Structures are given as structure tokens and as C-alpha cells.
Amino acid sequence: MRIVFTTPYPMTTVTGIGLFIRYLSEHLLDDNGSVMVVEPSRHSSPAGLGNILLAGHTFREIIRTRKRFDVIHAQALHLQSLVAALLGRVLGKRVVLTIHGPSSLPANGYWSVRSSLERLILRVPDRVVLIASFLEKVVKFHGIVIPNGVPVKAIRHVLGDRQRVRNELGFDDVTVITYVGRVTFDKGVNTLLEVAHSPPVVNKRIQLLLVGPVSNDVQQAIARAAAHGDPVVAIGEVSNPWSYLAASDVYVLASIREGVPLSLLEAMACGLPVVSTAVGGIPEVIEDGKNGILVPTGDIPAFREALRRILSSPEEAERLGARAAKTAAALYDSRIMYEAYKDLYSNLADPAFP
Hints:
Layout: E1 2-6, H1 16-30, E2 34-38, H2 49-64, E3 71-75, H3 79-91, E4 94-99, H4 109-122, E5 127-130, H5 135-139, E6 144-145, H6 152-157, H7 162-169, E7 175-180, H8 189-197, E8 206-211, H9 216-227, E9 232-236, H10 242-246, E10 250-253, H11 262-269, E11 274-277, H12 282-285, E12 293-295, H13 300-311, H14 314-331, H15 334-349
Helix pairs in contact: 1-15, 2-3, 3-4, 8-9, 8-13, 11-14
């Protein structure tokens, strides 16, 4: 199978869409398929006029390589996806669109124009895939639900040595709560900083570890927290965040909005107990009290209480982590995700497909 992926985010930056394409591509290549990616030419996500330039770049790349692929797989409700889908239909190619999460745009005049564009984008592809069922209500469209997945075996195979990583970070005799991903305020980092400032009352010292690219405004907030002596360390973007998960005791996610974050699935694959806000598709993955703990968005006391529950009971932490690992392996392995997309690609490529 020959697939061209389109993405509005550079593959060199840390995004869930980038990892999604990477994981699917690895399986496609293992099955002797071929992969191309059409992405922004710069190392930052396009904005404003950049979106139009990206659409033009996508048009040219698809025309230039039209004999080298069978299926266009576009990502997100983006102008790039509309151009790719329309051009694919003109060229007689099959088109898949995956929706990874809700839009973050405000409800204003521009939003109404964007909303109309998004409704149009949904009607052009041959198939629309949603990464979680909650998105059906969000985008008001009935698509195929294929959950995200992560390479569970690979993650466990390359996990770093817990004590070595902790020694490198200077974490001695502390409980490490870790967040991996884009370190921005829409990811609820302010909640995590508040928790670090006034941690739950337990018989352990707590260290908050933030792994991923840090926005400028958050960097300033972290600097202020450090100046006050709060136990916060941000190490920025790294090539292998899994080693830092190995050094951790609890994974925390305080996002305001989400789809199904791959970092959450990766932490679960590592067997970490999870405390997360109940947003987006996360409640479809985490069953509160069974394989993790869910809390309301922005509820700092609830977040502290959830951490206290885990940190005061090693048995509870082990139980939640073990069940999280089983959930990840049974339902959210990238091989499962790939097989579902492989069947979809094959059905689309069948001459009998309507």
C-alpha cells in the first residue's frame, strides 16, 4: 500500500499527529508499503497566511508525486486537508481524513467562517476517522472510530534504567510526578505548578518533572516557581521521553481540552498510575478508580487528593499502574491501530469500492 500523509505540523516538532504518522508509517514500511509525508517546509506550525502557503505547497507536492501513491491520508480539519481531499478526488485517489481532537478556536465571527469550512472538509473524503467516539458530537459527523495507539512493546523495550535517570536528574529520595508533551497553559500546566507549590500532605517529598517543548509564557511561570523554591524541573524537548517515564512514579495530565493524547497511552504502557483531567476522549481510556484516576478540569484540590490517594498507598499505585499497562496492551497498541487502518486502506483501494 502506498500512502501519502498530509499534516499541518512539521514532523520535527513534538505533536501527537506527528507521532501518529510515525507509528503508522513504521508498520506500513514493515509491511513493504511506501510512505510520503507532506508537511510545512518550516520548523514551526503555519499561521495566518502560512496556512494558505501550506495549502499551495500541498497542492504542488500531490501533483508532483501523484503516480507514487494510492491513498491520501489527511490530518485534522485544516485548509491543507481540504485541498488534499479535493485534489485527491480529482486525481481519482482515495482519501482518508483523521480527526484528532476538537478545535481550539473561539466562538466569534471568524469561527463561524471556519466552522463552515470544517463542515465542507468533512464531506469531501471517502472516509472520516475519529480517534474517539466523543468527537462525533463535537464535529457533528458520524465517522469511523479508530482509537490511537502506541508501540507498547517498543516502549517497554527501550525504557531507561530508573535509578540511572534519577541520578542524572539529581532526584534522590523523592517521588517524581511527570508530565510529557507540549508544556503550555492549555495543557493545564498552571494546575500542575499549583500542585507542586502546595503538594498533597504525604510522607514523601514530591518533584514535578515536565518533559517537552516549553512555551515562553510557561517558561517564565516555571522560573518564578523555581525562585520560590517549588520542586519543578522542566527539561525541554528530548529524543526519548520514555526514559523519563521510567524514572517516574505517577503520570499527571491536567489538560483543558484533548483528543486522546499519545503521551497518556505511553505512560500507561510503562505501567505508571495516572491522574488526569476528564476531558475529550480520556474518559474512554481511563475508567476512574480502575486503571487511573480522573479529576475535573482546573480542580486543584481534587488533583491533590488524587495524588494523595496514590502516594499514600503503594498497593493502590501498583494496582492502577498494572491495570493501565494491561489496558494499553489490549486496546491501544499501535499494531491494533495499524491493522484497522490497513483494512480501511485495502477496502478503499478495492475497485469494487463505491
